[in-house]
From TrEMBL:
Organism expressing this protein natively: Candidatus Nomurabacteria bacterium CG1_02_43_90
Biological function: Catalyzes the attachment of tryptophan to tRNA(Trp).
InterPro entries: aa-tRNA-synth_Ic (IPR002305), Rossmann-like_a/b/a_fold (IPR014729), Trp-tRNA-ligase (IPR002306), Trp-tRNA-ligase_bac-type (IPR024109), Trp-tRNA_synthetase (IPR050203)
GO cellular component, one term: cytosol
Stored SUPFAM superfamilies: Nucleotidylyl transferase
PANTHER family in the record: TRYPTOPHAN--TRNA LIGASE, MITOCHONDRIAL
UniProt motif ('KMSKS' region) ranges: 191-195
Gene Ontology terms for molecular function: ATP binding; tryptophan-tRNA ligase activity
Family affiliation: Belongs to the class-I aminoacyl-tRNA synthetase family.
Protein name in UniProt: Tryptophan--tRNA ligase
Length: 321
């Protein structure tokens, strides 16, 4: 039997190339290798989106994005997190085994606290709902960026604790991290993130892509000056597209003879050339939203059937039946 791969993305804004290279691409590449459960994390999105109509739109848009990158609903179970309410029940059970000091070490909570943000309970408890997302489908592997590895560690800890207390129930998942794309840089050099406003939209217009790339800050070195590609935020994005062209560009950086404007122009052309076929597919998919909703509904039925079996086992073991 194929191993199970699971992942999800929050519908909190337009998909960007960081989402694609950091996670989404793997789903299309590996759907013949794994049995995949890919969900749109709309429960998670409630920690930051408080507009029902907007969340509905973002959710449908993200489903279209998944299909446009090559997800085949015959090979991959694509569904809405909210179509599987058992996941929130399992999260509550996990809450009763999890201490406040343990969750206080979670990166997202610590970051928000450090910025003096008033943290809602959903954000604080986010890793436990994520653990339930992962464990309810007996996932073997979970593709994540390097900065998300802690969430898998929390899921593993939660599974191990439940198994110790109530008996062997949950499979221990493994993180899957692409070695060559651990964290996709944004236009400001930080991790590409909608919350930082440093993204390049995956299905943006040519003009939107150009505007984003041209906003990348650079130093004051002239065209003929040698440049360190390791220090250049533009070159960091070129590295998303490995190959002979990249190595030739690296050599030009080190030798001198290329300016940042030319490097940015090359990057714009590279990104547009890469995303144009996916953008065309997405435009076609958007013409029939009912077909997308049907795919999500059918995927939710498959996912919920799996989740119900696991939650039934949990209910029995903890004494709810």
């Amino acid at each position: 039997m194929k191993k199970i791969l699971l992942s999800g993305v929050k519908p909190t804004g337009k998909a960007h190339i960081g989402n694609y290279f950091g996670a989404m691409r793997q789903f299309a590449d590996r759907q013949d290798e794994y049995r995949q459960f890919i969900f749109i994390a709309n429960y998670h999105a409630l920690t930051s989106v408080s507009d029902g109509a907007l969340l509905q739109k973002l959710t449908l848009d993200l489903a279209m994005d998944y299909l446009a990158i090559g997800i085949d609903s015959k090979k991959t179970t694509l569904f809405l997190q909210s179509d599987v309410p058992e996941v929130t029940e399992l999260a509550w059970v996990f809450n009763t085994l999890t201490t406040v000091p343990y969750l206080s070490r979670a990166h997202a909570f610590k970051d928000a606290e450090a910025k003096n943000k008033e943290v809602n309970v959903g954000l604080f408890d986010y890793p436990i709902l994520m653990a339930a997302d992962i464990l309810i489908y007996s996932a073997d592997v979970v593709p994540v960026g390097l900065d998300q590895k802690q969430h898998i560690e929390i899921a593993r800890d939660t599974a191990q604790k439940f198994n110790r207390v109530f008996g062997d129930t949950f499979k221990i998942p493994e993180p899957m991290i692409l070695e060559n794309v651990k964290t996709v840089p944004g236009t400001d050099g930080r991790k590409m993130s909608k919350s930082y406003g440093n993204t390049i939209p995956l299905f943006g217009t040519n003009e939107e892509i150009k505007k984003a790339v041209m906003s990348i800050p650079t130093d004051s070195k002239g065209v003929e000056d040698p440049k360190d590609p390791k220090e250049c935020k533009v070159f960091a994005m070129h590295e998303l597209f490995p190959g002979d062209e990249l190595e030739a560009l690296r050599a030009r950086y080190l030798a001198g003879g290329i300016g940042y404007k030319e490097s940015k122009d090359l990057l714009v052309a590279k990104i547009i050339n890469f995303i144009t076929p996916m953008r065309t597919r997405r435009e076609e998919i958007a013409q029939n939203p009912e077909a997308v909703l049907k795919i999500l509904k059918e995927g939710g039925e498959v996912a919920r059937a799996e989740a119900q079996k696991k939650v039934q086992e949990v209910r029995e073991k903890v004494g709810l039946i």
